[in-house]
Write a structure and sequence with these properties.
Blueprint (H helix, E strand, L loop, with lengths): L3 E14 L10 E13 L2 E14 L5 E3 L5 H11 L2 H4 L4 H29 L6 E5 L13 E10 L2 E6 L7 H9 L14 E4 L3 H7 L2 E5 L2
Amino acid sequence: MIFFGSRGKTVSGQIVEGIDCPSCESKQFVTFGVIKYFHLYWIPTFPTSRTVGIECTHCRRTLIDKDLPAKLSGEIKATVFKKKNVLPLFSGLIIIACLVLFGIYSVQKDKLQEAAYIEQPLADDFYIVNYAKIFPDADEKYKYGLMRIKEVNSGRVEFQVSKIAYNKVSGVRTDIRNRKASSDDYYDIEPYYMAAENLPEMRESGAIYSIERE
């Protein structure tokens, strides 16, 4: 399957007169423009070249770009390459820009939301953590795990610590999504305690990777 490539689009122009056709000496031509563009999944992303020409209405002889007087070439470009003909060819670029902006917005929104979660921790909050930054004996290869808040009392947070650790964060997220992490059997019996005031610092250090609240 072809995901990207280049294609061309022909834009019809107006009829011009006053130029002698080299083949039949007719003086009437139809102007046109050809826009080549790069595409992703067949969506025009951005133009790569623009060429103009004229075609004799009598014998169909075509004159392209450099064969035309510079003044006429400029006039044709101004006529056929209007915004309404060119802007749609930036569709892919506009979509990409929107996706990037949406991604940035989502990341910033998540950061603000997680900051609010840390300021007011609640029971059953899921903390995806880097065990290697919390427990000295943690396996560096399988360092991503889950800590669920069991209770918050007088500035002290009691966590349940997962029995399972992964080499990627995606493994932890899958357990949350499949509600596997909602079972008490998923965690060790021994709790882990932490002062609530230390949570922001742990988030900054990367010990707390992210927070999810149902």
